[in-house]
Fold this sequence. Notes:
Blueprint: H1 18-24, H2 51-59, H3 73-84, E1 91-95, H4 98-109, E2 115-119, H5 124-136, E3 140-144, E4 160-166, H6 178-187, E5 191-195, H7 200-203, E6 213-217, E7 231-235, H8 237-250, H9 256-267, H10 269-288, E8 293-297, H11 307-313, E9 320-325, H12 334-337, E10 344-345, E11 355-358, E12 376-380, H13 386-401
Parallel strand pairs: 2-3, 2-4, 4-5, 5-6, 10-11
Antiparallel strand pairs: 1-7, 6-7, 8-9, 9-12, 11-12
The structure holds pyridoxal-5'-phosphate (PLP).
Pyridoxal-5'-phosphate is lined by residues 97-99, 123, 170, 195, 197, 217, 219-220, 229, 231, 348.
Amino acid sequence: MTKRLRRAPPADLSGQATGTRLVHAGRGPGFADGVVNPPVWRASTMLFDSCADLEAGNAAPDGGLYYGRRGSPTQWALEDALTALEPGAGGTKLFPSGVAAITTALLAVVKTGDEVLITDSAYEPTRLFANDILRRMGVTTRYFDPQLGAGIAALIRPETSAILLESPGSLTFEIQDIPEITAVARARGVVTLIDNTWATPLRLQPLALGCDISIQALTKYVGGHSDLMMGSATATPALLSRLKAATYRLGHIVSPDDAALALRGLRTLQVRLDRQEASALAIARWLEGHDAVDRVLHPALPAHPGHALWQRDFTGSSGLFGFVLKRGTRQQLGMLLDDLDHFGIGFSWGGFESLALPVKMDGCRSVTSLDFSGPIVRLSIGLEDPADLIADLAAGLARYEALF
Ligand SMILES: *Cc1c(COP(=O)(O)O)cnc(C)c1O
């Protein structure tokens, strides 16, 4: 009889410091006997020894190898590693993109006739999903001011089933009062989800602050090398079965090759993030003192309106922030960005290389108005020497200022 691989409960790493945990997480017995990393298990079909063995598999399809769509040790190792980073987590599911993680987590907790409340600062594809697919399912969406805190209570109706947070918010970096909102939600029986891509579980642990599902675009910091698309959703034990059911029914699975890449990225997440955080802060402070800059959108700066909340709830920051120029228009940003030597112009972020993006706010706000003096630039700070990045930006800003 072949020895069938079972999925053993992961070791409890909760007493370990983050760096140590990042090394040990997901390396449970059976996933990688005798080698450091789990092999890439490419498999659709798992063979059963007998009809009785197949019946036993049917009874517990998540208990071990069953069928490719339920994953193999490569994906399980990544799921367990991500679960180990979130105190209060029951388990994690993986998705082919961050957007698929957000949409599936939402579908897991809504039904026709429900309403969801979404922060007005949410990632634009999240809004597009709600405004199109959820709407056609008969689920309405109301957007709320990201800064409303316990005021969320006044918005909750009997049909409200979920609240989606994102902190800091996409493009404009507002910080939300997560414990205030989750306390109201819990009391009213409403599920809270959060897009935690900016902070990662290393800088914010949302389940410990009362959220029910914590979502990441692993495409960004966990992947870390701009060569991977993936998402994850980590749920409390109470929500995990709903998340799992939605994931299986919608047919999501990630390739074992991609899971291995994400695991590789995860091992170095802390050292990359520490360096990117420090460089980003140095650059943000330098920009704050520059004549061409109206304000810097970075919650770790004391001048940021969400700084006190950020300091209370987060254990650090990451490498993504924005700045607002005093003058000019988005159309003129080419003068600043086109000839930068160390910043690529492009979407996504969290990789080892720096990126700059001319921010486009059209269609990104429903209930809050923005009054920026000039255009917004978003920077993703990579692993380059920060002095080189500052010199590059200084030259770009001088080119830009020469326009006026
Ligand atoms: C990029 C991003 C996502 C989506 O991730 P994809 O892997 O590109 O689908 C979700 N949320 C935020 C905040 C993001 O920046």
